Amino acid sequence: MTMRRDPLIPVVAVVTDIRRDTPDVKTFRVVGLDGKKPFTTIPGQCAFLSMPGIGEALFSVTSSPTQEDYLEFSIKKCGCVTSWLHAIEVGQQITVRGPYGNGFPVDTDFVGKDLLFVAGGIGLAPLRSVINYVRHYRDRYGKVDIVYGARTKDDLVDYEEIKNEWCKEDGINVHLTIDIQQEGWDGNVGFVPNYVKELGFDTNKTVVMCGPPIMIKFTLAGLEELGFKRDQVYTTFELKMKCALGKCGRCNIGDKYVCKDGPVFRLDQMAQLPDEY
Amino acid sequence: MKKLSLSKLNELFSALSQKGELYIPADEKNGQAKFTLWQEGLSMTENLNTVRSAKDLFFPQVEQMVDFKVSGKEIEIVENRHTAEDFIIFGVRACDAKSFEILDRVFLSEPVDTFYKERRDHATVVTLACDKPEETCFCTAFGIDASNPAGDVSAWKVGEELYLRANTEKGEKLLSSLNLEDADESAVEETKAEIKKTLEKLPFGKLNLNGFDGEHLMEKFNRPEWAELSEACLGCGTCTFVCPTCQCYDVKDFDTGSGVQRYRCWDSCMYSDFTMMAHGTNRPTQKERFRQRFMHKLVYFPSNNDGIYGCVGCGRCLQKCPIHMNIVKVAKTLGEGEK
């Protein structure tokens, strides 16, 4: 499936399923009017969703490209478009355009590597597409570790899938943590950066990280203490965008446009750029 | 090379307007010049320094993109894109002609902006050698020769004659369709030399841009002088709206009551909400926003575009900034040239 003739004009799609993940995160399943997936993606790529009259906003695609029937978006309610999305029902039509951005190097740099995923809160959304891609092509990759943290256990996105699928799979170690002790929680308590340091991973791993900027900053410091180099660490950024074609000017950082040169960057590449993200 | 008596300029405009809409710089009632649709009776201004460039004709300040009809849970997309007819812009200065090349690098690079391309493809640009630069002009700093402007056709006023030279296929086609006398290229040499002499005297014409090479990105970004340079900036965005190379835009929806129009409109990196998202902004103070505008024109753009600056020295921002801050002061403060 290819992008429509004009990259600025969306197509109509329909929301076929809405799952509540946390008090402020819902996952939306989206298909085209022909019942098929609107377009194929690379894990880490993004797409614009919009409701005419409300606005258009960019979201990472959380479903893996190996999911052939639909696209999924895990969306936190925090602004104008997201509040509208949180109020809709199944069957609602929306518009979609994409995919945009480079995505993670799942078929090149990641192949044959032990992978360490580090996510905080809604930061799991873009990594879920990578994790499920890696699970699908399991023998192409080495050991997989996933460190995922949220404020409370109720704020863990995709908890059912994590518990029932990821945790039960051989060769995948899931390490969950929440910020403050809570009744009914027998996992780790503490912030993600500290937990990563406590777990003390081998420095041969490739790290894939997404979360709030403060989590990325302290996790990176911890990883460097453990002996990791910046060129082993990949992350994905989120900035305001209007076109996602490198023309509207919003996501410009230094000589890069996050929409087309990113959103995925290796951290040694980011060191050459102003820290305006 | 062709020529025409300047006394027949009106007849030329009339002939050109038969080929499509013709835009010329004309004085408005307030004394300021603007590219205006020609109709019988409209004469060209002597003042070539229009308030804005002809950028609007390729990249309008507001442009409809697509319409939507919404009923219940259903959405219908109604394509209503503007289809351009051939048109001519006459009297474009060398600096503005260069600015179109800069806009082309943004909008015509992959993925191509089809809205811009549609208008650009249908335009024929006739430039006019600039014999009246203002003291705010500094096109020479960017290697632009205002005595020998680019465009599809270049024109010179020499005495009582107008000389015209085609530079492109489009230009050839236009000139050959007009009833013009043949002329020799040497007829404009003296005028060129005179204009060059005038350009030599421009106070900012020798602005030194050494050090702005796209290579020293972080060094320039981290300079402490940004704080002082940006201190008085009001964030009004006037510099971006008069700039021929500024191209940032916003996409917005307008509910007409019977449908939704999605349009894009000019925006400015100088505005506080330009990068504002639900969780905050990555450029929280005017210092970061001010720095972004000048870093983009002098460092980031050249870094991505073979060293070409995102400025053509037209001087509009120097004239219009309410606090008299401008790219010349920034370049002098942060560059390696004379202060």
Can you give keywords for this protein?
heterodimer, A: 277 residues, alpha/beta, Elongation Factor Tu (Ef-tu), domain 3, Rossmann fold, 2 domains, seven-stranded mixed β-sheet, six-stranded antiparallel β-sheet, globular, B: 339 residues, alpha+beta, eight-stranded mixed β-sheet, four-stranded antiparallel β-sheet, 11 helices, 12 strands, 29% helix, 21% strand
Rg of chain A, alpha carbons: 18 Å
CATH architecture of the largest domain in chain A: 3-Layer(aba) Sandwich
Overall shape of chain B: it is globular
Measured as a percent range, the helix fraction of chain B is: 25-40%
Largest interface: A-B, 44 and 51 residues
Question: What value does the average pLDDT of chain B take?
Answer: 94
User: How many helix segments of chain B?
Assistant: 11
Q: Give the strand tally of chain B.
A: 12
Rg measurement of chain B, Å = 22 Å
Number of strands of chain A: 15
The helix-and-strand class of chain A reads: alpha/beta
Tell me about this structure.
- The complex is a heterodimer of chains A (277) and B (339).
- With 277 residues, chain A is α/β, with parallel strands linked by helices.
- Chain A folds into 2 domains: 11-100, Translation factors (Elongation Factor Tu (Ef-tu), domain 3), CATH 2.40.30; 115-236, Nucleotide-binding domain of ferredoxin-NADP reductase (FNR) module (Rossmann fold, 3-Layer(aba) Sandwich).
- Chain A is built from 7 helices and 15 strands.
- In chain A, the strands form 3 sheets. A 7-stranded mixed sheet of chain A has the order 10-9-8-7-11-12-15, sandwiched between helices.
- In chain A, strand 3 and strand 4 form a beta hairpin.
- In chain A, helix 4 packs parallel to helix 5.
- The longest helix of chain A has 14 residues, at 213-226.
- Chain A is globular, with a radius of gyration of 18 Å.
- The two termini of chain A are 32 Å apart.
- Chain B is an alpha+beta fold and 339 residues long.
- Chain B folds into 2 domains: 2-53 and 83-200, no CATH class; 217-334, no CATH class.
- In chain B, 29% of the residues lie in helices and 21% in strands.
- Chain B has 11 helices and 12 strands.
- In chain B, the strands form 2 sheets. Chain B has an 8-stranded mixed sheet with strand order 3-2-6-7-8-9-1-10. A 4-stranded antiparallel sheet of chain B has the order 5-4-12-11, with no helix packed on it.
- In chain B, a hairpin with a 5-residue loop joins strand 2 and strand 3 (33-37).
- Chain B starts with a strand and ends in a 5-residue tail after the last helix.
- At the A-B interface, strand 6 and strand 13 of A face strand 4, strand 5, helix 6, strand 11 and strand 12 of B.
